[in-house]
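Morning!

This is the sequence you dropped in the shared folder:
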Amino acid sequence: MAHKFSFYNTLKRDVEEFIPREDGKVSMYTCGPTVYHFAHIGNIRTYIMQDALIKALEYCGYDVKRVMNITDVGHLSSDADTGEDKMLAGAKREHKTVMEIADFYTKAFFKDFDAVGNKRPDVIEPATNCIPEFIHMVETLLEKGYAYVAGGNVYFDTSKLEDYYVFSSAIEKEQLAVGVRDDVEEDTAKKNKTDFVLWFTKSKFEDQALKWDSPWGVGYPGWHIECSCISMKHLGEFIDIHCGGVDNIFPHHTNEIAQSESYLGHEWCKYWFHSNHLNDRAGKMSKSKGAVLTVSVLQEKGYDPLVYRFFCLQSHYRKPLEFSFEVLDNTVTAYNNLVKKVEALIASDETLKALSEKCKQDKASEAAEATDVAQVLEAIRNSADVDQNVKKEFEDKFADAVSNDLNTSMAITLLYDVLKADTNAATKLALVDSFDKVLSLDLIGHALADDSADIDPELEVYIKDAIERRAAAKKAKDFATADAIRDELLAKGVEIKDTREGVKWTLI
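The structure's back. Tokens below.
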């Protein structure tokens, strides 16, 4: 039986116990990227917290099926059905075709998505794969009287709904209504200011790169309809959880509910999970600000992507999180300290120590190293020395934490509690491995990859002294001496690298 699980349901504006339609099984839809540019680290924070939710549900005994879209058409630069298609804007910016842009940025997205320890969705569907489904939904909405054709385009008629602003309180509804009246560029074809486009034709945009035949003319789908159709294609008429960032709540998710429930004739999704913004000191991170800070850029600066994941997990998903390199540097120190503690636990067990040494010897071969890591993990999981009572006690506490509105901060506190607990190394390592099913910080893998544990003490003292001498030389702008010290270390089989985390060294 699955562990009781609760989280904040945006639709009800409260923390609720999660009860799936089918016992033990979860159907989940998450809004994917619009692949016109790189995903910045604020975007990736949202996917890290969604990943933690999925893994927490699985840890608590649920079977999760997750579907995610790739927006490669239809997302305009304004949520008011105005402006330019973001994909076309990207293509013009880089002098490429829309499909070349989509392919490049989809690959870039998943490179960063994977690097922070995320598990890929079970289904990933580009919007351009589902044009027939979009047309069918628009036809049905027209037949049911929820849509109309005007100016060559098809619009959803929000006046047909009893409550369009489903996510909002009475005060918020009034504020949103004022915003729609005052701030949105007027589309004279709309009957109501809140109406939104289901299908665009060339009467709206002559230069749209991707176009398809439809009963209303050559054109392309609106942004909102793709998520409704893609979720129904793969998950059916009901989904348990819909995820996204808080910026998706209005109008995107509001419009999804409007069209989906009008099309289906019943409630579509009961639970909505939204992650808050990542800010820097200038405010919310945005692609419109210029240079995009990505996970790949963090890597180029010497940061491990899992350090960024650790940074995100230490804060609650519903709170805004402020990013700075100073804070990330502090996170690096905390993460490395955890790795050292795990490394010491491995070194205290003769069997694990031998496997660890073999792992380090096999670093030149990725396949051999992966096999060695797998052997270490198997040994940890099968150890007869694990105190099963202590393990269950901590695992129950961990399940309580992650099932209580995804309290990843408390989950990490429990990780620290395990490392200082009055129990043996085998039990601690088994719990680090267990918690990593959700945290995905790969502390054991990093501990096995660390070269510094079994080095000759005299050589280690020499290396540290050389690094300090080189730092002093660089500070004095004596770069010739600094380079000479680097060469001196190389001659002794030690390679050094300057990173944001400080100087790193490895034996070669």
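Headline: The domain at 324-443 is CATH 1.20.120.1910 (Four Helix Bundle (Hemerythrin (Met), subunit A)).

More detail when I'm at my desk.
O.
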